[in-house]
Amino acid sequence: MAEQLKKSIINLYGLPSFGFQLFVNMEVFYFAAFLTDFAKLPMALVGTVLLITSIFDIIWVPTAGVILEKSNMKWGKYRSWLLVGPPLAALFFILQFSKIGSPSVNAIIITVGFVVSHLIWNIYYGGHIAMNSSMTTVREDRIAMSSNRGMFNGLGAIAFSLIGMPLILALGKNNPPMGYTITVAITGLVMVACYYVLFFITKDYAFHGTSVQTGQAEQKMSVGDMFKQIAYNPPLIGLMLGEFGRYLGRFVIFGLAFYYFKYVVNNLAVITIFFTGLNVVIFLGAAVSNPLAKKFGERNVYMASLGIFVVGLLAIWLMPMNYISFMIVMFLAYIGYAMPDALGVVMYSSTVDYAEWKTGKNARGFVMSLLSFPIKAAILARSVIITAVLAGAGYVAEMAPTPELVNGVKNGITLIPAVIILAGLMCIMFLYRITPKKLEQMQKEIAARKAA
Question: What number is the average pLDDT over the span 347-351?
Fold first, then answer.
């Protein structure tokens, strides 16, 4: 029987995610605004910077996975990146929020800061995720760590929503761009500290799940073999498609929330409450996902959660609501986003075991790094959908609400995400067929092969 992890590791496994959320939300919420209103780049340059960085943002996901899988530093294959990566990423991320030189020079500096920081953080982000399965094969411990990470994700998002803008304004009182730069530096230090805590408490598990601790030659895997881990892995394909649908639905809702509150329910002032409430729901959903997944299985809880999300969105679409009823129903429905958010890591871990069982090879770092690929793809698709919704509704800035605009925005924030999420649910249902019993069977066969 596999040895269970120390409670301190299970309870603090998600701490890096708190720092990462505090750190990365600067970009999520304020990168475009920084380019236009603080770095004061011309719109043509802004468009170029956003296009180049978006392309690299997607390319870096599999690239980081290959680097992670090929590397093997002395502090552990995956654990080493918790030490090396965060400070380097923080330094280059500061450049992404800097105002230096002429607009052209500044655009180059910002782009370099983005490209380098994102490559590095994709590597150590993947290393952190991979440790969920490299440190233990105990399913219950994996679930507990995964849900713990979801809770810290929610706490990090809540913390940023409370301190982000006040910190930017206070530090940039006499020099607004510098407010962004210093805030990034501060959140970067917090992020580094969070990763270092996990690095130091996992010293005894540095080489778990890798060949280094046995003294044997490390198994070499070609890039082609790594990508075969996707092609021969229907559960991984189904999970990535399901995650793509879940994230795309969320991003469309977030992107259209401004227009919904302004034009449909006519109360833009409460949008801050709405976003903060959704972050609180993420924390609560992560907390309840742990016992539910252990009892009913990760796959079943994931699918039931997406079903809740779809039903809630359809209820809002079908029934007339004011801003209060809209937020109440959306908060309840958002539980359906929050619980899968806490289960994604453990489900990806199971696809690693499936791939090793199927192919005889383990590409844990590469597979686990793919967790962020659906997010990047959904960000790109979101822009297309939101643009199509607004154009189809005849939207013009500061226009008076029309029936076409109201119906278009309402359909965009409810019906379209519901259809997208339902499609993702179908992918999970038909492709991700790993049950707790099947996982246990695969792990036993893998262990028997290694023993032989």
Answer: 91
Number of domains comprising the chain? 2
Q: How far apart are CA 122 and CA 143, in angstroms?
A: 22
Please name the residue that has the structure tokens 């046995």. Answer: 214
pLDDT-derived band at 235, boundaries 50, 70, 90: very high
- Position 208 scores a pLDDT of 63
CA-CA distance, 235 to 243, in Å (whole number)? 12
Sequence-distant (6+) residues with CB within 8 A of 356 are 362, 446
Choose the final residue of a domain: 158, 179, 210.
Answer: 210
Q: Is residue 403 in some structural domain? A: yes
Distance CA 136, CA 208 (A): 8
What are the angstrom distances between the C-alpha of 380 and each of 50, 57, 376? 11, 10, 7
The residue range of the domain holding 4 is 1-210
- What is the rounded distance in angstroms from the CA atom of residue 175 to the CA atom of residue 404? 43
Closest CA to 146 of 127, 124, 131: 131
Rounded to 5°, angle at Cα 97 from 94 and 100: 95
Instruction: Tell which residue, 90, 87, 89, 79, has the closest CA to residue 119.
Output: 89
Rounded to two decimals, the pTM is: 0.82
